[in-house]
Design a protein that fits this description.
By secondary structure, this protein is of the alpha/beta class. Helix content is 51%, strand content 12%. It contains 12 helices and 7 strands.
């Protein structure tokens, strides 16, 4: 396959797997051909429903995703999965555990599974997750699943990416309480209690429903948020979850929110790209000297930041 961005973009728009894989590699590696390719395919995006799946480690997110992929495929839908894995501290690469757990879909031409390493990115998402989701959208996938590495105190960035966010909990670990601390309860569109065959399922479900009831009091106009049951390891609950996801898309489209969420996601990506570019340029201008000055207590961090911003302003004016 050719190395030209335009050629890869044309192949990608026909749904060619190799072209999609190469595009995501370019974008993840910050190859200069990546932005050129994305510019060519961007007008063909905006159709796929992006479904974020997040929850604490051990909740069975990968097994749940595997079950949902099988359910979507049984309905004739094409599905792409972005599994955001922790990066190796030595190589920077993804561990790829999710691809192993979804191996039964590896030979299905209607499924594309791609792991991305977080590369130290906070928020549970890889730095290039947004771009990869656009690639899958342009390739014509109906559903793009983004599975995060797990929920922590601040790891809710998937909400900014997804049309529909699924929060996965599991009985017996107190995860629902932790989710409240992280603000996840405010973000979820669908809640799933996985491993529901375990002791404590009823108590976990009641606690989640109670907290969602409290949330609903501050959102009287919002529809009721579903709390669903699943035992993903046995394939139980997939149909109900897929139907709830489809119903959520219907509600979003009816209210004009599907396109609005696309716009908010694009705006967030623009801001992030500008932040990254300005930070790189400011650090290039300041070099190590500014950090040495902070270390030596000759200037405080706020003053150092102001100094770098002034240098940027002067560079812009001079240009």
């Amino acid at each position: 396959m050719g190395q030209d961005a335009g050629d890869v973009a044309r192949r990608l728009l026909t749904g060619e797997i190799a072209a999609g894989a190469r595009a995501i590699r370019w974008l993840d590696d910050r190859d200069p051909r990546g932005p050129a390719l994305l510019a060519a395919v961007y007008p063909h995006t905006g159709r796929a429903q992006i479904v974020g799946i997040t929850g604490p480690p051990g909740a069975g997110k990968s097994t749940l995703t595997d079950m949902l992929v099988a359910e979507w495929r049984s309905r004739g839908m094409r599905v792409a999965v972005l599994a955001v894995d922790p990066s190796s501290p030595f190589t920077g690469g993804a561990i790829l555990g999710d691809r192993v757990r979804m191996a039964r879909h590896a030979l299905d031409p209607g499924v594309f599974i791609r792991s991305l390493g977080t590369r130290g990115q906070a928020g549970g998402l890889s730095r290039s997750t947004h771009d990869a989701a656009l690639v899958f959208d342009a390739m014509g996938y109906d559903i793009v699943v983004v599975e995060t590495v797990g929920v922590g105190q601040d790891e809710i960035d998937v909400v900014n990416l997804a049309h529909t966010t699924i929060i996965v909990a599991v009985p017996g670990l107190g995860d629902e309480i932790q989710a409240v601390k992280a603000g996840i309860m405010e973000a979820g569109d669908i809640f799933v209690v996985n491993k529901a065959d375990r002791d404590g399922y009823d108590a976990t479900r009641r606690q989640m429903e109670m907290m969602l009831h409290l949330r609903a009091q501050s959102r009287p106009a919002q529809p009721e948020t579903p709390v669903l049951r699943s035992v993903a390891a046995r394939g139980e609950g997939g149909a109900e979850i897929v139907e709830a996801i489809a119903a959520h898309r219907t509600r979003l489209e009816g209210a004009g929110d599907f396109a609005r969420r696309n716009g908010l996601r694009a705006r967030a990506q623009v801001i992030n790209l500008v932040k990254d570019a300005l930070t790189a340029r400011a650090l290039e201008l300041g070099g190590d000297a500014i950090f040495d000055a902070v270390d030596a207590r000759r200037i405080d961090p706020h003053g150092a930041a102001e100094h770098l911003l002034r240098q940027l302003d002067e560079r812009i004016i001079a240009a």
